[in-house]
Design a protein that fits this description.
The structure is a single chain. The protein is α/β, with parallel strands linked by helices and about 300 residues long. Helices cover about 45% and strands about 20% of the residues. It is built from ten helices and eleven strands. The strands form two sheets. A six-stranded mixed β-sheet has the order 8-7-6-9-11-10, sandwiched between helices. About 45% of the residues are buried.
Length: about 300
């Protein structure tokens, strides 16, 4: 969601985080007052960078253009913010893309500060930090973040991440592989769920052995499901039964373009089936009973790391 399309002026009291995700590019601008963070502006664009990767992981010219066009807008917002108050990171798609330097070199000419390409583990640890800083419960937790081209799994306690991994499965890349025909068939769901399980199973035993007391989700697919539950005026708790219900509703819609679900934002529909498939696989492979939503993730993690450095 875009809070504002106008370009206001900022100053040295403002902090900015730019997250070049595989599905969306995000800009978050905040101030710090009396040790409390206040959101000033959010700008989000569905760039769908991961959809621009071909079978050889070469990023298309169109995808690069979409990304650079978005960054020109972001650069206007960043122009008056001190460089020390800015963090710009890129994640899975630019890790994967063989021609990532073509994009990064052009992007760095637009942006006031160079892009930091996070490793999978750095991304996972930063996501955990964002969850930990925005969650009031300190008990041992499993954090799940399903992005456009990667999925992060982190087990930690309080502010410490004990085990973190990034898997190469994401809602945009899976849509391109398993729902490219636009059809919501049982066969497409089975193929996507099985493919996700193949990636998750090799690490599942280690995670189950560590254990956790709660499971927290922090990405768009979980947000979408939470919005459906909120519309129904139900508790924001995602269960396996609910996931199966949504899967059956999607199959009854027949095609991605025909998805109609009360409470679902239209911009979330294109990757709902693929993201849902990954989440079902995670529930199955990790023996998850239920999942709740976190308000913090990667951007909040970057923000808290930056502000703690400044104080």
């Amino acid at each position: 969601m875009t809070i504002s399309n106008k370009i206001p002026q900022y100053d040295d009291k403002h902090y900015a985080v730019v997250d070049l995700g595989s599905n969306s590019f995000h800009l978050l601008i905040v101030t710090l007052e009396h040790n409390k963070i206040h959101t000033v502006n959010k700008v989000k664009r569905k760039v769908r960078l991961a959809a621009g990767l071909n079978t050889e992981n070469i990023l298309s010219a169109d995808a690069i253009k979409r990304g650079l066009d978005c960054l020109r807008l972001f650069a206007e917002h960043l122009a008056t913010i001190p460089l020390n108050n800015i963090r710009i990171v890129a994640t899975a798609t630019l890790r994967i893309a063989t021609n990532r330097q073509d994009f990064i070199a052009k992007a760095n000419k637009i942006l006031p500060k160079a892009i930091n390409l996070l490793s999978g583990k750095q991304e996972a640890n930063t996501i955990y930090s964002g969850v930990a800083h925005t969650c009031t419960v300190t008990k041992k937790r499993l954090v799940i973040d399903i992005g456009g081209a990667s999925t992060e799994l982190i087990v930690g306690h309080s502010f410490t991440a004990n085990k973190a991994i990034s898997l190469n499965i994401g809602c945009v890349s899976f849509r391109e592989k398993y729902f490219s025909d636009g059809l919501l068939t049982q066969e497409n769901f089975v193929a996507a769920i099985n493919a996700a399980c193949e990636v998750i199973k090799p690490v599942s035993a280690d995670y189950i052995n560590i254990g956790w007391q709660s499971v927290v989700g922090s990405s768009g697919i979980m947000q979408a499901l939470a919005e459906i539950l909120a519309f129904r005026q139900q508790a924001i708790v995602i269960t396996s039964e609910f996931l199966q219900e949504i899967k059956q509703i999607l199959i009854s819609c027949n095609t991605i373009t025909a998805i109609a679900l009360d409470g679902l934002r239209a911009d979330r529909a294109p990757v709902l089936a693929s993201g849902l498939s990954i989440l079902i696989a995670l529930f199955n492979c990790l023996q998850i009973k239920e999942l709740t939503l976190s308000t913090g993730a990667l951007r909040e993690g970057l923000l808290f790391e930056m502000i703690s450095l400044e104080q």
